[in-house]
Amino acid sequence: MLDYLKQNQTHITPGSFSVRTYSPDASMSLDAPTVRNLELPALFELIDRTRTPIGARRLRAWLGSPMRDAESIELRLGAVAELASAAALRESLGAALKPVGDLERLASRAAQGHANARELVALRRSLEAIPALRDVLGACEALVIRELTGQISDAPELAATLARALVEDRWRGRWSKTRRRRLARVGRFGPASTRSSTASRKPRAARVSGSGHWKLRSGAERGSAR
Questions:
Q1: Helix or strand run (H / E) with residue 166
Q2: Mean pLDDT to the nearest integer, 195-217
């Protein structure tokens, strides 16, 4: 693991890792032949209705490592039964999860200093969605859901900082649409001279940023935003 972190130039800071205990008897670890014989990948594709990448990874992990403890199984089934019987609650939960991105990946890239502007915007939107998500989960009665809801914490200060530091690059968005229309008229395989001249007029900021229609605010912009 340390070699992997070193090769990827990962910055290890306090709080980057946490140690948790687990019981090997709590779940049944399935090897690759068992997963293949049980056709678990096909089962995952059939039942996957998750709304976030984190949820998809968790469902895949649950299928590959089923519980063995009867009490834990009953608690999870109770949570599933509540959500399965409440269509309105499921719709509200799905709507609350819609703005949430891959928080694990976004937070990791931001902590390592590798996140671009678009990813920071996705992180901000995910953080801003947490209070509404927690409110929806607060209406659930299943013990497992209530325990998980108590573990959710938001970061309003970080979301506000990201909102101040990021601004939508509206000019670049207009340029992109104009260029797409121009290329559509010329044709993908139009004259080489036309293609090269069109590409040469691409704004330098658009070439450098590579971050969609978002950019970091300048110092003057951040001052005016306050």
A1: strand 166-168
A2: 46
168's enclosing H/E stretch is strand 166-168
Rounded CA separation 109/120 (Å): 9
Q: Would residue 199 count as lying in a domain?
A: yes
DSSP summary character for residue 27: B
Q: Which domain holds residue 150?
A: 26-166
Does a structural domain hold residue 107?
yes
Residues 197 and 129 placed together within one structural domain of the fold: no
Helix (H, G, I), strand (E, B) or coil at 215: strand
Q: What is the pTM of this model?
A: 0.71
47, two tokens: 């039942």
In a domain, 139, yes or no: yes
Rounded CA-CA distance 216/196 in Å is 29
pLDDT in tens, 96-136: 999 999 999 999 889 888 899 999 999 999 999 999 999 99
d(CA 14, CA 164): 26
